[in-house]
Please model this.
Amino acid sequence: MKADTGRRFAVRAPQLRGLRMRLVVAFALVAALTAMTTGALTFREARIGVLQQSQDAVITLLRGQANRLAPELPVPPSEAELRRFASDMAAAEPSGAWRVLVTYGDLRATSVPGDRFEELTPALDAAVDSSRATVFQRVKSGGHTALVVGMSVTFADQSTTASGVQVFLTVPQATEQAYVDALVTAVERGTVPALALAVLLALLAARGVLRPVRALRSATRSIAEGRLETRLAVNGSDELADLSHTFNETAAALEQSVAELRGMEARARRFAADVSHELRTPLAAMSAVTDVLDEDAARLDPDTATAVRLISQETVKLARLVDDLMEISRFDAGAAVLHLDEIDLAESLRRTLAARAWTDLVHTHLPPPDVLRGRVDPRRLDVVVANLVGNALRHGARPVQLRLTGGGTPDTGRLAVIEVLDSGPGIPDHVLPHVFERFYKSDDARTRTEGSGLGLAIAAENVRVHGGIVRAANRPAGGAVFTVELPLHTHELPDDATPGAVPAKERRP
Amino acid sequence: MPRVLLIEDDRAVRDGVALALRRQDHEVAAAETGEEGLERLRSFRPDVVVLDLMLPGMPGLDVCRAMRALDQTLPIIMATARGDDEDIVVGLEAGADDYVVKPVQARVLDARIRAVLRRAAAGGVEAGIPKIETYGDLAVDRAGFAVSLRGVPVPLAPSEVRLLLTLSASPGQVFSRQQLLEAVWEHSYHGDSRLVDACVKRLRSKMGDSGHIQTVRGFGYRFAAR
Model:
């Protein structure tokens, strides 16, 4: 079924864009966004807090030290006094991380000898010059962050007058930086599990949604394949449960309609079978006496003789029709049984023609004796050939040909191919698909022919119970051709139980 | 004049068939039920019985068995509906010699009756062959139409005798079922080969599985002289 696999492929291919993937992506996006926003806000607040606290502490400490030491500094100070002031200022922080620069006019002194104090920017310098407040700047140089604080020392009595002494302090902020870095890492580390959890949740949610969807899909397919009794288990009361419920109702309705249709068809067929059955007993009585009527008709007056002959002939036809109806009823009921016997097919075909005195009417192309043997039901094969040849003789034009050849592939096993060809006008295209239908009349006129109208249908059924195929077609050269492919089932037959005792002439070729 | 006992429950069919058979020079006794048929068997002493399988009361198959129990050699022809496949097989195994499918034309039934009677009277027609042939412990009297196994006569129905005579006429030769249908039953090539199989089965069981009749798979049967 090529179309089917194509359709399934088309359904499966876009599964990357399927419900599951969409849920996973949505969950992951929400999780990532939440984690990043939370992380960023936390980070910002934490960072500001940390830095603010550390710089407040530094400034308080620096101010305190300056207040303590400044009164002892003579103005104007000497360079040595400035240097000692710088060192004393730096000593306020016991770990020795502070570096202090003290200026007075052009005099400069640093707590660390030879310190070029490169962190001091001209902007900060200028700010200290112009402002009495303590100013600070965070400076990044050479990969390290440092806090640079600057202030002017004022006289205690004249608080508004600058002494001209300016103090600058550089504090490395490695600890604070590490703290902030740790925050970033923590946010990052928090995001990954959050994402994983989101994906997991998405998969769980998808499963919860997809399981009923998948069940629905396989149930739909099951219905499509003809198992109408398929139902879904309805769990919960969500939309999917509603859908399952609706599905079950639809399936039940469908099953009921189909059952009703099948019941009607079965009743119609049983009616045909019953009618034929009931007709059989009166027909048995009538058939028994048709010969008596035929014999005595000659002695009756002409009108009565005609009437009597008519009854006799029509009784025979009616008997044949009922017989055919019974035959087709048995196919419908699945009661047709094969009685297989291994025979020579060419011989069988010859006998079929001979039994109906058709030998001279039909050109045969048959293989020599015992070349084509097979296990078939001889009676059914006789019916098939007789009905096809009879049809060709009645509806096609002579010459009628009957051909038998061997065929088949390793897949099909050995086949007998029987062809019945006539030289008539062929079968109209609109009739061709219906030739094997019961009582099908090609020219809507209800003209009666010699056949029962069931001949080809019965032939087709007989081929079918053999596991064979029958086809009708028109030949390019004109005329119709009916082809039967019949499996020979020879492979099912074990070798002769006592091969040595079989006379040579009887041995299988 | 062949004496035919017709057992058929439907009056119209019974009258019609009886009328037609009388016209074909048969002496006909008709019975409505199996029980009546079994009674007429003694009084009428028929040459052949035509037995409908669908009978009210005692079923046709039981009638067939009962008749066989009374007379192993009486020819019995069953009348059945087509499709009563199992009945046909059971009937043949119960000992019926042949069957016809209803509705049947009088001349077809007449032909069957005459064929089965020919089988019963076929002794002596094969001139030139010694009258008694022995194959191991089996003795076949072609002229007397009798068979005995280890000196004990074996009562055989006509089709059984005819089948044994046909097969044993050419020991070792394989006969197809179709050949046997034509030779023994005078049926067409496409007749019902179950007649042959059922008859072989009955023959084997009557001859105590002597192994004379051998199956050649895919071909048919042959007689082993031994």
Residues 239-297 of chain A form the longest helix (59 residues). The radius of gyration of chain A is 54 Å. Residues 1-14, 492-509 of chain A have pLDDT under 50 and may be disordered.
